[in-house]
C-alpha cells in the first residue's frame, strides 16, 4: 500500500474502502473481506448506521490496529460543541476502538465551528489522530483553515469524471488539505462503466473502466473511496498500482467534466431544504443519531 502524509505527519493510504449504504447486517463481512484483500483505509460515518460492523471487523481481523486507518464523520444533528463532543465518544464506543484515525465534520451545516472545537479537543486528547471536513466548498474550507486552531487536514467531496472538482482541488492543494473522493464511480450514472472514452483507455492498459477512474484520481493526488459488496470487485479496485495514464488519457478524461455535482449538490437550496426537513423530523420524534 502507498500512503499520503497529512499536514500533521500522519500517514493515510492513497485508496480506501467506503461503506456508505452498506446495510449494518452486511458491514462486518464486507469490511472483513476488504481488509483481507489489502485495504487499510476504511471510511464510515455516524449517519451510515454501520460503525459497529466496521469496528467489529477491525477488532477481529488480526491486523495490527496501527495498520488500519479508520475514518468516521460527525453528523449534522451533532453539529455544535457539546453534541459533537458526545458523538465522538459514542462513535468510539460503538466501534469498540480506543481512537479514530480521522474524524470529519460531515457537512457544513449548523454550528460547525463549535463542532470543530470538539474535534480539536479530542485530537489533543489522543482520541483522534487527524481531523478534517467533508462536503466543504472552497469558501467554507478557506474559512476553517484561516480561523481554526488546527486547520482541516482532509476534505472529502463528491469527485468523479463528471465532477472533477478542478478549482476545489487546486484550492485544497494551496491550503495543504488532502482531497478525498466520495462517489468515485459517480454511482454508475451517465453510463460511466460503459463510457467509450474510459473503455478505450482501459483496453489500452489492460484494465477495467473502474480501475482507470481510480488511477486517474490517484494520479491527481486524490484519495478515492470505492465501495463494493463483492470481494472480487474489491480486489479489482485495489489492483491499480501497476499502471499509469498518459497525457492523452488524462486529456480525454478531462473533457468529460461537467463542472458540477450530479449526486448531491450541497450548494443547492432544494438539497438544503431536504436536509432541513430530515433534521426537523428527527427532532420531532425526540431522537437523534447519537
Automatic annotation (TrEMBL):
Residues of the site described as Lowers pKa of active site Tyr: 73
Residue ranges annotated for the NADP-dependent oxidoreductase domain, each copy included: 21-188, 198-255
InterPro entries named in the record: AKR (IPR020471), Aldo/ket_reductase_CS (IPR018170), NAD(P)_OxRdtase_dom_sf (IPR036812), NADP_OxRdtase_dom (IPR023210)
Gene Ontology molecular function: prostaglandin F synthase activity
Residues annotated for substrate binding in this entry: 106
PROSITE patterns, sorted: ALDOKETO_REDUCTASE_1, ALDOKETO_REDUCTASE_3
Top-rank lineage group of the source organism: Bacteria
Tagged with keyword Hydrolase: no
Keywords linked to the UniProt accession: NADP, Oxidoreductase
Catalytic residues in the record: 48 (proton donor)
Major enzyme class: oxidoreductase
The enzyme's E.C. designation: 1.1.1.188
Homology family: Belongs to the aldo/keto reductase family.
Protein name: 2,5-diketo-D-gluconic acid reductase A
Amino acid at each position: 500500500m502507498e500512503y499520503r502524509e497529512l499536514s500533521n505527519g500522519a500517514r493515510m493510504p492513497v485508496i480506501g474502502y467506503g461503506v456508505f449504504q452498506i446495510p449494518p447486517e452486511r458491514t462486518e463481512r464486507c469490511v472483513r473481506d476488504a481488509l483481507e484483500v489489502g485495504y487499510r483505509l476504511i471510511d464510515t460515518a455516524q449517519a451510515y448506521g454501520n460503525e459497529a460492523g466496521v469496528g467489529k471487523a477491525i477488532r477481529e481481523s488480526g491486523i495490527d490496529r496501527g495498520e488500519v486507518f479508520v475514518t468516521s464523520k460527525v453528523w449534522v444533528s451533532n453539529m455544535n460543541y457539546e453534541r459533537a463532543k458526545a458523538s465522538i465518544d459514542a462513535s468510539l464506543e460503538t466501534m469498540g476502538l480506543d481512537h479514530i484515525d480521522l474524524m470529519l465534520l460531515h457537512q457544513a451545516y449548523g454550528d460547525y465551528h463549535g463542532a470543530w472545537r470538539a474535534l480539536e479537543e479530542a485530537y489533543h486528547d489522543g482520541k483522534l489522530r487527524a481531523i478534517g471536513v467533508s462536503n466543504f466548498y472552497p469558501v467554507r474550507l478557506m474559512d476553517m483553515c484561516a480561523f481554526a486552531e488546527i486547520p482541516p487536514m482532509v476534505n472529502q467531496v463528491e469527485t468523479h469524471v463528471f465532477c472533477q472538482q478542478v478549482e476545489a482541488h487546486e484550492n485544497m492543494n494551496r491550503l495543504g488539505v488532502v482531497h478525498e473522493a466520495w462517489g468515485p464511480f459517480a454511482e454508475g450514472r451517465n453510463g460511466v462503466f460503459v463510457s467509450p472514452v474510459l473503455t478505450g483507455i482501459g483496453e489500452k492498459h489492460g484494465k477495467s473502466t473502474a480501475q482507470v477512474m481510480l488511477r486517474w484520481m490517484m494520479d491527481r493526488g486524490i484519495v478515492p473511496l470505492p465501495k463494493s459488496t463483492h470481494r472480487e470487485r474489491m480486489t479489482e479496485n485495489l489492483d491499480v498500482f501497476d499502471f499509469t495514464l498518459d497525457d492523452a488519457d488524462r486529456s480525454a478524461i478531462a473533457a468529460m467534466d461537467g463542472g458540477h455535482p450530479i449526486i448531491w449538490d450541497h450548494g443547492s437550496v432544494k438539497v438544503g431544504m431536504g436536509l432541513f426537513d430530515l433534521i426537523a423530523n428527527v427532532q420531532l420524534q425526540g431522537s437523534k443519531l447519537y
